[in-house]
Each structure stands twice: as structure tokens, then as C-alpha cells.
């Protein structure tokens, strides 16, 4: 069994095969997060890019739990200089971790670190869990046509930003669903602040009218089982 919990914004926890994988743990300064960094659990932490709403509380949580942080090479250097255990990967590269095969995918965005440092290129994640689930976490990105290549894998769940302004908005996210054709899409990176507020129920209606994909609207802290 694989479960996916959304903690608001882009923070997601995937539980699979007895492991907890926490993605973009932005909790302390996230106005909609239902838990504090000290309540988070993780065996592994994935960080998509260097922006503060994604690096978030990575250092604090990784140190407290001795979690292994998986991210691009440049972010991994920055984190390991702060005493965090890291596993660097890069875009297009996959690795067999204990929880499954994880590949970094491209994302059209920036990746400057909170201190202004160079965070390499931003990424998304493609995860093949040990129990056969295929999960695509797009990260912060604009729409790109090669999402159709990711769709060829047969995606069970895709987490896509719909907030607009910094990432895809609802119309481009609908186009992304048509390229990826996942079984389930989880909208993320919206309603954290007014700047990225969206009518997620209207988006669900439109996606489900125009595609066979089911839209899972979660409240921060809610989870979905992939069975
Ligand atoms: Ni960003
Ligand atoms: Mn962001």
C-alpha cells in the first residue's frame, strides 16, 4: 500500500513499503500547514529546488531524524555543508533507493537558494514504488510538451501545481493532465497565499469533463490511498 498525504503548498508525504518520504517540507512558514516541523516524520526527504517554500525546514527535520535528503547535486552540496546527509542525483538520472526507483525530471523554473546561493536546475520527481505505483511530482514548473514522455510510463498519481503566477495555472495544468493522463491528479501549490488562490472545485469539474482523470482535492493533512 502506498499513501500520499498533502500538507499544503508543495509539501507531500509518501508512505510506501514501510518508508516515509517527505517532499518539499515547507511547514514552519506555510500558513496552511497542519503540522509543525517538529511533528514531521521522514526516512527520506526530497527537495525539488532551492526556493524557500520548498527547501523550507529540510535542514531542521533532516538533522532531527537523520533522514537522507535526495535532490540535485548543487542543493546536495549546500545541504551537506550544513551537516545534512544527502544523496545527489540530477535530471534524467534515476537510482534504486530502498523505497523504489526515483528519477529526477526537468522543471521550467528557478532554483536560487534562500541565501542567494546557486541551487542548480529545478526538478520534478518520477517515483516507481516497490509495490508498483508510478507517481509524478512535477515540482514548480511551467507546462512543457515532454510531459507526454512522462505520461508514457502510465502514471497512477500526478501532483501538479495549479496556482498560476509562479507555476502552471489551471488552464496549463489541464493541458498537462492531457499530456500525462494520470489515473489521479492531485492539485498543489495553490491557496497558500492570495497571489496563488484558485477555484479548485471549478478546476476539478473541468478536468473531469474533458479527461478520464480523477481530481483528488485534499485539505492540508488529508491523505489518499493508492491501492
Ligand atoms: Ni519555486
Ligand atoms: Mn514554489
Summarize the structure.
This protein is α/β, with parallel strands linked by helices and about 230 residues long. Helix content is about 20%, strand content about 30%.
- Uncertain stretches: none
In the CATH hierarchy, what is the superfamily?
Ribonuclease Z/Hydroxyacylglutathione hydrolase-like
The amount of helix comes to 10-25%
The N- to C-terminal Cα distance equals: 6 Å
Number of strands: 14
* CATH-defined architecture: 4-Layer Sandwich
* Largest β-sheet summary: 7 strands, mixed
Bound compounds: nickel (II) ion, manganese (II) ion
Which percent range describes the beta-strand content? 25-35%
Oligomeric assembly: single chain
Q: Overall pLDDT, averaged?
A: 98
User: If helices are DSSP runs of H or I spanning 4 or more residues, what is the number of helices?
Assistant: 6
The topology string of helices and strands comes to EEEEHHEHEEEEEHEHEHEE
CATH top-level class: Alpha Beta
Biggest sheet: strands side by side, in what order? 6-5-4-3-2-1-14
What structural class results from the helix and strand content? alpha/beta
Amino acid at each position: 500500500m502506498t499513501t500520499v498525504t498533502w500538507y499544503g503548498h508543495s509539501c507531500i508525504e509518501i508512505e510506501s513499503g514501510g518508508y516515509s518520504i517527505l517532499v518539499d517540507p515547507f511547514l514552519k512558514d506555510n500558513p496552511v500547514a497542519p503540522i509543525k516541523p517538529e511533528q514531521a516524520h521522514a526516512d527520506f526527504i526530497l527537495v525539488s529546488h532551492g526556493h524557500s517554500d520548498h527547501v523550507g525546514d529540510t535542514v531542521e527535520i533532516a538533522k532531527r531524524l537523520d533522514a537522507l535528503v535526495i535532490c540535485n547535486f548543487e542543493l546536495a552540496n549546500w545541504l551537506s555543508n550544513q551537516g545534512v546527509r544527502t544523496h545527489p542525483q540530477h535530471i534524467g538520472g534515476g537510482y534504486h533507493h530502498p523505497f523504489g526507483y526515483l528519477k529526477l525530471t526537468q522543471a521550467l523554473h528557478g532554483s536560487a537558494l534562500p541565501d542567494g546561493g546557486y541551487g542548480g536546475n529545478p526538478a520534478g520527481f518520477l517515483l516507481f514504488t516497490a509495490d508498483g505505483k508510478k507517481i509524478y511530482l512535477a515540482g514548480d514548473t511551467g507546462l512543457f510538451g515532454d510531459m507526454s514522455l512522462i505520461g508514457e510510463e502510465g502514471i497512477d498519481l500526478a501532483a501538479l501545481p495549479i496556482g498560476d503566477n509562479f507555476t502552471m495555472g489551471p488552464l496549463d495544468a489541464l493541458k498537462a493532465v492531457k499530456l500525462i493522463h494520470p489515473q489521479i491528479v492531485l492539485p498543489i501549490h495553490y491557496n497558500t497565499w492570495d497571489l496563488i488562490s484558485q477555484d479548485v472545485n471549478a478546476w476539478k469539474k473541468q478536468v473531469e469533463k474533458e479527461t478520464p482523470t480523477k481530481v483528488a482535492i485534499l485539505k492540508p493533512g488529508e491523505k489518499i490511498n493508492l491501492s
